[in-house]
Sequence to fold (267 residues):
Amino acid sequence: METVLKQGRLLFAIAMAEFGIENLICARTAHPSMPVIPFLPSYSWLAYLTGLALLSAAVCIAANIGARLAATLLGILFLLFDLLIQVSRVAASPWDVGIRTCAFETLAIGSLALILAGSLPAKAGVAGFWQRAAKALILSGRYLFAVSAIIFGVDHYLVFGLIVSLVPSWIPGGGWFWANVTAIAFIAAGLSISIHWLDRWAAALLGLMFVLWFLVLHAPRVLSLPRFYNPDEWSSAFIALAIGGGSWVLAWSLRPNSSGRSSDSRS
Fold:
């Protein structure tokens, strides 16, 4: 289990790299009437800048070069996307499940980046104020992620027919069964993570669910024509991978240390 969970950081970095590359590709054709990928408005200069930032963060996280700082800044970047862009979209269309899902996906990825930062050792010599501010921000990550998971579960029931239709017919049990399982899993995992009860198992299994979605549901779609040329399909696939990998990062950060306490308590 430990070997699998350790791969969460790499999966998260791969997803960030894909987002970066996708931004750079889409930036060439970006214009105000056509969103780039799904966290920011479509201005070419912003897409190029964001693409470079995401690629840089992905390399730093994967290569362990200033990884804690890169993950912290990445988390702040996604939270800013949410505050400056997504919140106003949700306020304008509060009952639109698609818009709300996008907002909480952004929040989830940002919070997981902060959780990743908290799982990495802090450098000595950082000024006390900034160290305390960064610690408070990082500690908020698990609760923001827990809220996102619960919202995902509730929203599954609001578009239940769509979720059922996404389950491949060859999977035993049928779409109705698995749509219920995933909705309940989201809500249960969010509650478990927020109250620190079986939270490591909740995060590990939630990550497994997202990684399986990436492999079973999303990968076949993006590799088929004409979806291969659709940025939305690629975004959806690697959002699933990012949240799956990030969930494993959370589970890894909750491993017991020599004193019997979880590593999360030392962040």
